[in-house]
Specification:
The protein is built from one helix and 29 strands. The chain has 396 residues and is mainly beta.
Length: 396
C-alpha cells in the first residue's frame, strides 16, 4: 500500500514538473511567436476617378455603384469598372496612415478582387507588409513601396499566372486567353498556372497563356525619360524654369514621391520642368506618354479664359518625318468652367490622383521622327498640383 502511494506521488510530481517546464518554456515561446507573426488589416482607400465603379464588399451581396471615395473596402471585396470608369486603390501601413504600402490604378473593363492586405501588428516582427490581389479581367498598374521602415511584398494573381512583386512599378493586362505582365521598374518572380516560372527585371515583360507554351523574359516598352518617379532630386534629368513666380520641387505624398508645382498669387505665372531628349524614334512602332497627376487647388476655373493656363500641362516638342517642328499638348484641370478650352484639356477630380495614358503618338499624321524635349508645367495665378510616374514609353 505504501509503495502505491509513493508511486502515485512520484507520478504527480513528474507530471507537475513537466507541466511547469512546459509553461516556463512554452508561454515565452508562444508570446514571442505571437509578437513575430501577428498581423492586422491595412486601411484601404478606394477613390473613383471617372465614371461609376461597382463594389461588392467582402465578395458577398450585390455590386454597389460607388461615386465617392470610401475606406470601407474589406478583404475579399470585388471592384468592377466599365469601359468609361477608372479608380485608384491606396493601401496604407496600419501604424501610420501617411505611409503608403501600395497603390493600384484600376482601368476600364476590369474585375479586381482584394484577396488580402495585412501588415505586422508589432514592430518586432521581421515580416513585410503584404498585399494579395486577384485580377480576373482587364488592366491594372501596381506600385509597391517600402513603408514604415519595413519592406513590402505583393502577390498578383490572374487566371494564367502568379507574380510576386518587390518595391517597384508593374502592370498586368488580362485578356480572355492570356495575361501580359510588365515590370516597369523593380523585380518579379512569375509562375504560370502550369508551374513554369521566369524572373523579370526593369523594362521586361512576359506573356502567360493556357497550354504548354513556356514563359519568356521579353523586352517591354522602354521609358525614354530619366527620374520620372522623382525619387531623386529634380536636378537628375530635369531642368526647372519659372516665369514671374512659382516653385517646383520634389515632395512625398502619403509615401509617394512626386513633383509639386505651387504658386499663391495674382497675375499670370508659370513654373515648369523640362527634359531635353533629342531622341530618334523612327524605329519604334509605339510611343505613348503616361503620368499620374493630382490638382490640389487652382484659382482660375478650367484653364483660364484663353484655355492656356491649366494647373498642369504636358508639352512634347518634336520633329516630324518631313522635318517640320511640331508640338503635342495635354492639359489637366479640376475646377469646371464655361470659358474656352482646347480639345487637349481634360477635367480630373480635385485632390485625387488621376492616371493618364496617351494614344500611340507614332500613329500621328505625320508621325514624329525626333523627340526634342518633354516639358511639364503649371500655368495660371494660384495653383497647387502634383505629378509622378512620368513616362514616355517606346516599343520597337
Amino acid at each position: 500500500m505504501t509503495q502505491n502511494r509513493e508511486r502515485l506521488a512520484w507520478i504527480i510530481l513528474l507530471i507537475s514538473f513537466t507541466i511547469c517546464l512546459s509553461l516556463a518554456v512554452g508561454v515565452p515561446l508562444g508570446i514571442r511567436q505571437f509578437l513575430l507573426t501577428a498581423t492586422r488589416a491595412q486601411p484601404i482607400l478606394l477613390q473613383p476617378q471617372r465614371g461609376t465603379l461597382g463594389l461588392q464588399r467582402s465578395g458577398r451581396g450585390d455590386l454597389i455603384a460607388l461615386q465617392g471615395p470610401t475606406w470601407d473596402v474589406p478583404r475579399g471585396s470585388l471592384l468592377v469598372t466599365d469601359s468609361a470608369a477608372q479608380a485608384l486603390l491606396t493601401f496604407y501601413a496600419p501604424a501610420s496612415e501617411s505611409e503608403t504600402v501600395a497603390t493600384v490604378q484600376v482601368y476600364g473593363d476590369t474585375r479586381l478582387r482584394i484577396a488580402s492586405a495585412r501588415s505586422p501588428r508589432f514592430g518586432l516582427s521581421p515580416l513585410p507588409h503584404r498585399v494579395v490581389l486577384q485580377v480576373e479581367a482587364g488592366r491594372v498598374r501596381v506600385t509597391v513601396f517600402p513603408a514604415d521602415g519595413r519592406e513590402t511584398t505583393a502577390q498578383l494573381r490572374t487566371p494564367h499566372l502568379t507574380a510576386v512583386l518587390t518595391a517597384g512599378s508593374y502592370e498586368a493586362r488580362v485578356y480572355g486567353a492570356l495575361t501580359e505582365f510588365i515590370v516597369r521598374e523593380g523585380y518579379a518572380e512569375v509562375t504560370s498556372a502550369e508551374g513554369r516560372s521566369v524572373s523579370l527585371n526593369d523594362n521586361q515583360r512576359t506573356i502567360a497563356q493556357a497550354g504548354p507554351a513556356p514563359l519568356e523574359a521579353l523586352p517591354a516598352a522602354r521609358n525614354l525619360l530619366v527620374n520620372g518617379d522623382f525619387r531623386q532630386p529634380l536636378e537628375v534629368g530635369w531642368e526647372t524654369y519659372t516665369i514671374e513666380a512659382g516653385t517646383v520641387q520634389t515632395t512625398t505624398v502619403a509615401g509617394r514621391p512626386a513633383a509639386r508645382f505651387f504658386r499663391d498669387g495674382i497675375g499670370h505665372a508659370e513654373v515648369g520642368i523640362r527634359q531635353v531628349l533629342n531622341y530618334d524614334v523612327r524605329d519604334f512602332t509605339s510611343l505613348a506618354f503616361h503620368l499620374n497627376v493630382m490638382v490640389q487647388g487652382q484659382s482660375l476655373p478650367g484653364c483660364g479664359s484663353a484655355g492656356s493656363e491649366c494647373p498642369i500641362i504636358v508639352r512634347i516638342d518634336y520633329q516630324d518625318v518631313y522635318g517640320g517642328d511640331r508640338v503635342w499638348y495635354h492639359g489637366f484641370y479640376s475646377v469646371p468652367t464655361k470659358d474656352y478650352l482646347y480639345w487637349w484639356s481634360e477635367q480630373i477630380p480635385l485632390q485625387t490622383w488621376a492616371s493618364y495614358d496617351s494614344e500611340n503618338l507614332m500613329q500621328s499624321d505625320p508621325p514624329p521622327a525626333l523627340i526634342k524635349s518633354v516639358t511639364i508645367y503649371a500655368s495660371g495665378h494660384s495653383f497647387d498640383a502634383l505629378v509622378t510616374e512620368v513616362e514616355l514609353l517606346a516599343q520597337e
